[in-house]
Amino acid sequence: MNHTAAIEQLERDLRQLHVDFNRYFAGGLDLPPETFRDQIGRRIRRLRAQGVSGVAERFRLNAVTDRFNALSELFNRRLREEQEGPTRATGDGETVPDVRNGVLIEGRLPQHTARALYDAVYAGREQPRSGFPGFRDHLLGQIETIQIRTGCRGVKLRVEHDEDRPRLKAQPIYEEER
After folding, report:
1. 14 Cβ partners below 8 Å, 6+ apart?
2. What is residue 178's predicted lDDT score, i.e. its pLDDT?
3. Which of 3, 5, 29, 1 is nearest to 16 (CA)?
4. What is the CA radius of gyration of the chain?
């Protein structure tokens, strides 16, 4: 395949990757199209390593590379936001998961999300002997138990105040609730 044809195929594949990303975030695909994205990335690197000779082809390849990088960055940011759940800004520019409105946990439990839940539950209270690591391990076990018992896709965790005492509430989230 000559360079022009390879670049045209990459452009078509980028359009398809964009569609697949949107389908994943809309719930139409069960798994993110990361394998397809990685294949495109390898093909771009291979084509760049071969060295494209014409000015027009180099321009098109640079444009494809830029689009690929922008799409990958957007996908990574949206995936991270989906895993972390809603966030709120603090005064120092940091963002903290909004544990009062709830955070959706699908798969792994991000460290900063677990920390925000821990801090909200034990704010102004005596902390458990096991500390944060024990809390996180317990939380992971509870999430796994809920997913096994209910067959849900994820668990939404939120902190509610019950009789002036913060409590952690868990809600199974099924595909149709996303």
Report:
1. 40, 64, 67, 68, 71
2. 47
3. 29
4. 22
Torsion over CA: 156, 143, 74, 21 (sign) = negative
- Note the pTM of the prediction, 2 decimals: 0.50
Q: Are 129 and 159 in contact (CB under 8 A)?
A: no
And the tokens for 68?
A: 């690929």
CB 21 within 8 A of CB 75: yes
Cβ-based neighbour number of residue 83 at 10 Å? 18
- Give CA separation, 18 vs 43, 44, 62, 75, 124, in Å: 17, 16, 18, 9, 46
- Residue burial 138-167, b: 16+ Cβ < 10 Å; e: rest: ebeeebeebbeeeebbbbbbbbeeeeeebe
Please compute the mean of the pLDDT values over residues 107-114 and round it to a whole number.
80
Q: Give the pLDDT of residue 52.
A: 83
Name the CA dihedral angle for 129, 133, 139, 143, rounded to a multiple of 10 degrees: -150
pLDDT in tens, 52-61: 888 989 899 9
**Residue 103, number of CB atoms within 10 A of its CB:** 25
| Cα angle value 138/143/149 (rounded, 5°) | 125
